[in-house]
Amino acid sequence: MSTTLTHAGLPVGVTRFDLLRLFEQVARPGFGLSSTAVALVRHYVLKTMDADYLKGRICAVWTQACRFAEALGITPRSINSAERELERAGFIVRNAGINGARAGDRQDGIITWAAGINLAPLITRYGELKGKAEALDLQARAISQCRAEIRQLGQRIRHACDQTLRERAEAILPGGRTARITSIARLTAIRETLAAMLDAIVSAPAANPGAPKTSDAPEENCAPNIQDKNSPRSCSARGAAPDRITPTAAVSVATQAYQELVAALGGATWPNIVEASWRSCTRLGIAQSTWGRACQHFGRERAALCVLMIDRNAELPGDHRYKARSPSRCLSGMMRKDRSQGFNLTGLFRAGQSDQVLAEHDGRLAPVDPLQPASEDIGNGALGLFASDLLARLSAQFEGGAAQ
């Protein structure tokens, strides 16, 4: 084979290190290459120069395999196996001389000839590598979204308080965990099966008039997870709020970033609010275990409202005395107070609504304190006068309590 194999060069603005990063990103998941082969390509690229990647140039290395083996801390046989693997995959051309001898010549920084490992195929396939990386990224996003939907379905099944339904869900997905499942086809099948099970239960006529109502009714007009009687802690939250809170009303008191997230998810519905709060937990530094305990304690919709209100205080200026500097402690404090004294989330929300009106006049973000919920006996005028002070202690009191 010719020792002067040239190539068409990399696209404008793309360096050899961009090519290397792209190759390392897709080599194993996209082409099934071994870690030794990937490490060897890195060593090849580091042995070359930027000028070797220009159009019409030769890009090659002619270091002996034993030298590569010594540098990588492996045997020469492993190097030869990795080179054959890369050649079969179409990323290099081996064009050694007689008896496998490797040699070459570089004059004024330009390779004039080389008998060794030629990287022209790798350079030529840059566009293919980029497309493969984009496809893998889309697949990863689809897998992440599917896993999130499976988690939501699992939570709804647990909240349904139906032991038979739980057992069927456990048979479909033992342990309820999807971390080790990487096939999008299998994840999609699990999601569709769980959704069909849940839809069959939800659409079935209620045999018990005292069964809990869920928020699967029209999203725009229903309160979150309303129940006629307290259900066991393991199935849902404590007693339901006395007043109905619509999704639109809930989003109206949220921060601008939270509102934009809900809008991106498709608008103000309870599932979208729950999803927005779940995503906001990462931004706020609330551990998923804390979020899970809140959903178990309050129910998903009420837990989502708690995160929404905490997010309000987290957006306060950095020097504000009531800024929620530890949102995770705030959420834990809400659960702790509910267990010890009871927690009027509806009162907190109504206070936030009233104070939101004042905030719109001067552009400030009104802090909210769940330890001082609005009393039904306080009129709008009185609440307006005292809201900024009365409802401002969420982060200070909850964070202080958690630290004790």
SSE order and pairing:
Blueprint: H1 16-31, H2 35-47, E1 60-61, H3 65-72, H4 76-89, E2 93-94, E3 103-107, E4 110-115, E5 117-118, H5 120-124, H6 126-159, H7 163-172, H8 184-203, H9 247-252, H10 256-265, H11 270-284, H12 288-298, H13 300-314, H14 327-340, H15 345-362, H16 380-390, H17 394-403
Antiparallel strand pairs: 1-5, 2-5, 3-4
Helix pairs in contact: 1-2, 1-6, 3-4, 6-8, 10-11, 11-13, 12-13, 12-14, 13-14, 14-17, 15-16
Pfam families: RP-C
Domain Plasmid replication protein C N-terminal: 10-162
Region (Disordered): 207-241
Explain what this protein looks like in three dimensions.
With 404 residues, the protein is mainly alpha-helical. It has 3 domains: 109 residues, Arc Repressor Mutant, subunit A (Orthogonal Bundle); 65 residues; 191 residues, no CATH class. The protein is built from 17 helices and 5 strands. The longest helix has 34 residues. The chain is elongated, with a radius of gyration of 30 Å. The N and C termini lie far apart (76 Å).
